[in-house]
Amino acid sequence: MKNDLILRAAKGEKVERPPCWIMRQAGRYLPEYHEVKAGRDFFETCRDAEVASEITIQPVRRYKGLLDAAIIFSDILVIPQALGMEVQLIDGKGPNFPNPIRTIEDAQKVLDYKVDLFTELGWAFDSITLTRKKLNGDVPLFGFCGAPWTLLVYMTEGGGSRLFNYAKEWLNKYPEVSHKLLQKITDVAVEFLSQQVVAGAQILQVFESWGGELSSMDFNEFSLPYLKQIAKKVPLRLKELGIKETVPIVVFAKNSWYALDKLCDAGYNVVSLDWSWDPKEAVKINNNRVVLQGNLDPGVIYGSDEIITQKTEYMITAFGGGKQNYIVNFGHGTHPGMDTEKIKFFLQECHRIGSRE
Ligand code: 1CP
């Protein structure tokens, strides 16, 4: 490994500066992404290891020396696909499930589905292995998956949502079946994450992007127990699979402000924060139990250099300076229209500010 900064930082070690990466650092804001994708179907692009590895490496190449990790180009919706559900990505509209889970019979079909990860998601492992080879030790590679509740949202809603009426109906009308579905998703997530490590992933992130849609009480019932299972079972499975190194795991539960204290004890090495947090508050609540990651509002990238500097400086300082228990990121992903040069400036500022004695 030429650069293992993020692996050391994620384990809580003291580091020379905070490692930097950005959620959705690959994708639509990069002109080279559009060039390579060339109007092809999104999932077809993911399944082509050569293309997916190229897209994964694009930001690392563009921001040479500024990014300390790559994240494999794929999507959280590949687990529903592995559970036998059809998922499309419609340009300009987002994910679409032609047959979402709406009835008990639909749910039973998913529960009865015999998942064969290597048949359904073999391409994901090939893509990770090839990307690792191409990265040649430049930076560590993230594997990832969607958290069970967030995936259940897509599987019941059939796509993105504003009201979350179908997902909420499932939790409140059929809590027992909802738990069975969440458990099935969890089991697949544990195996999928573990096999991503076998294929070459060196650090993992679990995306609970719709965590903030739950009440605190429902988060405790429908999200947290499954997040905890993932954190506990992946290391055990990795041991069984003969992996000797510790593989750090990050959890990102967007807008789940009420859950930070519990997430710090959920078994993860790193807790990633959205931008609603004042880092000082989060640092106090965490009290050095885990490494924190985040949390600049990506919208700051639309600002002047002075504003980017000012807000980045506040962030890094408020997280304690960045030499321990901190990883730089945005509070959520990049936007398609963002200026690549502004993102470069942000990363340069993180290096400058984070390296200061
Ligand atoms: O650099 C990277 O991060 C690339 C890999 C990646 C990841 C980690 C992609 C590529 N998607 C994801 C995770 C993902 N996908 C999440 C969790 C993170 C988050 O909260 O943003 C979620 C919720 C999805 C679902 C999804 N897939 C959406 C959001 C729709 C909604 O409901 O709001 C969208 C638009 C996609 C498609 C997708 N996935 C990735 C990209 C680059 C795209 C856009 C594809 C395109 O239009 O070209």
Automatic annotation (TrEMBL):
<keyword id="KW-0210">Decarboxylase</keyword>
<feature type="domain" description="Uroporphyrinogen decarboxylase (URO-D)">
    <location>
        <begin position="19"/>
        <end position="28"/>
    </location>
</feature>
<feature type="domain" description="Uroporphyrinogen decarboxylase (URO-D)">
    <location>
        <begin position="142"/>
        <end position="158"/>
    </location>
</feature>
<dbReference type="GO" id="GO:0005829">
    <property type="term" value="C:cytosol"/>
</dbReference>
<dbReference type="Pfam" id="PF01208">
    <property type="entry name" value="URO-D"/>
</dbReference>
<dbReference type="GO" id="GO:0004853">
    <property type="term" value="F:uroporphyrinogen decarboxylase activity"/>
</dbReference>
<dbReference type="GO" id="GO:0006782">
    <property type="term" value="P:protoporphyrinogen IX biosynthetic process"/>
</dbReference>
<keyword id="KW-0350">Heme biosynthesis</keyword>
<keyword id="KW-0963">Cytoplasm</keyword>
<dbReference type="InterPro" id="IPR006361">
    <property type="entry name" value="Uroporphyrinogen_deCO2ase_HemE"/>
</dbReference>
<dbReference type="InterPro" id="IPR038071">
    <property type="entry name" value="UROD/MetE-like_sf"/>
</dbReference>
<keyword id="KW-0627">Porphyrin biosynthesis</keyword>
<protein>
    <recommendedName>
        <fullName>Uroporphyrinogen decarboxylase</fullName>
        <ecNumber>4.1.1.37</ecNumber>
    </recommendedName>
</protein>
<dbReference type="InterPro" id="IPR000257">
    <property type="entry name" value="Uroporphyrinogen_deCOase"/>
</dbReference>
<comment type="function">
    <text>Catalyzes the sequential decarboxylation of four acetate groups of uroporphyrinogen-III (octacarboxyporphyrin) to yield coproporphyrinogen-III (tetracarboxyporphyrin) with the formation of intermediate hepta-, hexa- and penta-carboxylate porphyrinogens in the heme biosynthesis pathway. Acts on a number of porphyrinogens, but only coproporphyrinogen III can ultimately be converted to heme.</text>
</comment>
<comment type="similarity">
    <text>Belongs to the uroporphyrinogen decarboxylase family.</text>
</comment>
<comment type="pathway">
    <text>Porphyrin-containing compound metabolism; protoporphyrin-IX biosynthesis; coproporphyrinogen-III from 5-aminolevulinate: step 4/4.</text>
</comment>
<keyword id="KW-0456">Lyase</keyword>
